[in-house]
Amino acid sequence: MGRGRVQLKKIENKINRQVTFSKRRSGLLKKAHEISVLCDAEVALIVFSNKGKLYEYSSDPCMEKILERYERYSYAERQHVANDQPQNENWIIEHARLKTRLEVIQKNQRNFMGEELDGLSMKELQHLEHQLDSALKQIRSRKNQLMYESISELSKKDKALQEKNKLLTTKIKEKEKALAQLEQQNEDMNLASTVLVPQSLETLNIGSSLEDRDDGGNNEESQTHGNAHLPPWMLN
Prior knowledge:
- This protein is mostly helical.
- The chain is built from 5 helices and 2 strands.
């Protein structure tokens, strides 16, 4: 007997439903890959499980390129009938488009963090690795640039501090030189004063001796003159 036709309805048994989903998903991804290779078509496949897990396939290394092409095409198609549609429907379509784009971006972000890599093919993993290498090179380049700028700034500050230190050293030497000259002048003045004081004292002593001698002579003369007027018996 041939295999019976499967009735299309929800499988109630969770285990059977999960097994069927896994098999059909693999077959769907395989068919999408075959049609992209055999017919040279751009294929983008997005599947969400009942638990919200994302499975995707893209014939292009970057899923966003196909989605952007789809958005441009669907947007151009919608523009023809935009005047006939209510404004609310346009907002609903725009919301759905932005929501899909957000989900893709969040999924890529999780992949960049090393999460949910089981559903990626070898080509997608290689593309992800290339993106990470490119981002790492840019990060290192920016880090090296900041380090170089920081070193240059520190070198400028060091040079400025050396100039200030040199200027302060020159000022200190000038002040020390001026202070030494002032001290030398004070010493010279003190030395000159010590030489002049004994000479003046000596001059004063010489003058007083001469006066004493003159006074003594005058006394003798006055005494002699006084004795000349006395009688001889009083002198004896």
